[in-house]
Specification:
mainly beta, globular, 227 residues, Immunoglobulin-like
Length: 227
């Protein structure tokens, strides 16, 4: 059975609403730092009516290699303050800053991951209880390439679409390989599948996939789903 992808929806530089789980809210969920800025803000809100929450934020370099996500220590960005206490029904700010100040123009976007962890409470009454700590993992992209400076988002998406390709591979396992030859990341969420043996096209929703600039992503699960 042969199927092929007719359309890849590319979502970049999204302005996202509040993301919340349990008693904590975090926004924006797709932050960026672009020239000529030097920082961005992350807001966190404690929706709990009675208990404060202590949070620690860290930022890592985010790479894709050998079809795997890799987080690496870095010293280009810093978060201030690194730890905050958010009182009940209030909000606080983490500031993510470029150590060297204002961003200069670049040729290739950089990718990072921000991890926000709940710091465990030192409470003797909870020693015998099982307690789960919250973790948020947010993408952070830094630097819009100079070739896209001052261009409308429609023009950027059209240019990226020309540089986003795919192929079917058989080794080491059957998979759909997506190649991003653009200097910006691609965020893939919906694909339209056409199959020669079916009378109608299939709209296939998948887990969100990030393909970093000039990187390749292989997805075995997607191959299984369309076959």
């Amino acid at each position: 059975m042969m199927a092929f992808i007719s359309k890849l929806w590319i979502l970049v530089m999204l302005i996202a609403p509040l993301a919340s789980a349990s008693s904590l809210g975090v926004w924006p969920i797709n932050p960026r730092i672009d020239h000529p800025a030097s920082s961005t803000l992350l807001w966190v809100k404690n929706n709990n009516k009675t208990e404060p929450v202590t949070l620690q934020a860290r930022v890592f370099l985010w790479r894709q290699a050998n079809n795997e996500e890799q987080f690496e220590a870095q010293d280009e960005l810093v978060i201030s303050p690194p730890i905050i206490e958010v009182k009940p029904e209030t909000q606080q700010i983490f500031r993510v800053m470029n150590r060297k100040g204002l961003l200069s123009t670049i040729t290739t976007e950089k990718s990072y991951r921000i991890l926000i962890d709940e710091v465990p409470k030192d409470d003797a009454n909870q020693v015998s209880q099982l307690r789960f700590q919250m973790r948020y993992s947010l993408p952070l992209f830094v630097g819009r390439p100079e070739i896209f400076a001052n261009k409308p988002i429609t023009n950027i998406l059209n240019s990226m679409a020309l540089n986003l390709n795919y192929r079917v591979i058989q080794e080491p396992a059957p998979a759909i390989e997506i190649i991003n030859n653009s200097p910006l990341h691609a965020r893939l969420s919906n694909l339209t599948i056409y199959n020669n043996e079916l009378p109608e096209k299939n709209y296939f929703s998948v887990t969100v996939y990030w393909v970093m600039c000039f990187q390749t992503l292989q997805n075995v699960g997607l191959w299984i789903a369309v076959n």
